[in-house]
Amino acid sequence: MTGDVKEKKEALGEVLNGDRLVSAPYKLDYKREKDIEVACKSKLTKDQVAQFRAAVKKDYYFQMYYDDLPIWGFIGKVDREGRDDPSEYKYFLFKHIQFDISYNRDRVIEISARMDPHSVVDLTEDKDVDVEFMYTVKWRETDTPFEKRMDKYSQSSSLPHHLEIHWFSIINSCVTVLLLTGFLATILMRVLKNDFMKYAQDEEAADDQEETGWKYIHGDIFRFPKHKSLFAAALGSGTQLFTLTVFIFMLALVGVFYPYNRGALFTALVVIYALTSGIAGYTSASFYCQLEGSNWVRNLLLTGCLFCGPLFFTFCFLNTVAIVYKATAALPFGTIVVIVLIWTLVTSPLLVLGGIAGKNSRIEFQAPCRTTKYPREIPQLPWYRSTVPQMAMAGFLPFSAIYIELYYIFASVWGHKIYTIYSILFIVFIILLIVTAFITVALTYFQLTAEDHEWWWRSFLCGGSTGLFIYGYCLYYYYARSDMSGFMQTSFFFGYMACICYGFFLMLGTVGFRAALFFVRHIYRSIKCE
What we know:
By secondary structure, the chain is α+β, with helices and mostly antiparallel strands. The chain has 13 helices and nine strands. The protein folds into two domains: 31-148, no CATH class; 172-195 and 213-526, no CATH class. Strands 1-9-6-7 form a four-stranded mixed beta sheet. A three-stranded antiparallel beta sheet has the order 4-5-8, with helices on one face. Strands 2-3 form a two-stranded antiparallel sheet. This is Transmembrane 9 superfamily member. The chain crosses the membrane at residues 165-188, 230-258, 264-288, 300-325, 331-353, 391-410, 422-448, 460-480, 492-520.
């Protein structure tokens, strides 16, 4: 094609999104109709014909923007009529676009592009072809107000029949999950009530009898966990990611991420993550000092690298892959510099400030029972009470609560669907938190009754295990639901999904541990410990 292509200046979020917009050769002047105007003439070589044919075969489409309204259409078509053998299919490239534009007074309201099915170029054989690309522009008046011009795009993902099925499936999973949690809660309450009564009677009766169950390990229950620096760092990162998610939901529910607000989500993620790093520093350092840790600087470094580290290495690898493939997903050098600057000038200082505030907060760890000097031995337990089977049990219920919604989210992140129903997503998120907290508390209770007092890490891992289930779902989605192929798409999908699932693991692990800690403190406060 002749003519030079001008590149558009992109905002940070658009660049992260992989958008690299260039100017198109079509001139759409306001209210000026055009009838079959030539955009350009071109001679396609054999190689170009083969490239176009491959693109038509894979249903490639173009996407353009006019006054920030998206337009898209297929670049060609495959003629399969009356032919059974794929080698006999005919391939055509469209060469005539008709733009239909609606306006209201002086504002563009709607635009669509139609391809003329009769004006095509045959690409079936490898030979040089001369092509004239043409376009037609038609304007018509409409009375839709300018404020409502984006509604058309929001509706595409929330068509009534889709929405009914969507709501129905969500309500269905909500009811199931809430019934299960209610069921668990009632059992727990009754069992605990019995425990309290039994322990109270035991105290009135002879004191020399052997204690059993969870009261028996009161001297070990608040013994601090191994690797406390890592534990505090994981809690810090998890709390930060939780805050980030809540802020993103607030913005979504206010309506910041309307469809085609290109890259707004990515910009928000980067900025809010940078600004919330003080929370991670504070939580991590104060908890580490509560666990009587001494090396708080190392703890802060660990907190800073726990989520950013794996994300950075994944990004370096995938960006290199994208550069090798010459894909637009490769971030330009300038953007990488901007992100590094945000990290050094905003994230790190806030992390350190938060850490110093946390270290100086001098909060005591309130343990209702004194810890004995020597840890007691944990009895031999059956295999299903070890960490991995417990994690599998813990992750299944919360995952089943979000399973249906995951499909819609994957289809919008990795497919071409638009996701606009943030209210449903928010409800699902709340249910996910409730279920994670409940299941972790239940499993912690069963663990303590078996006289296994190492519940700190276990509650974190059980809470976070939903993240691993989501990664399992990625495998299913990749093979069963998506058309992805090739090394680049595969590595991008599994690389970035691994980071997202790891983030979920940290966030839900924090939720699980906080719930378990609250529960353990509560039950040991209710009995008299020597």
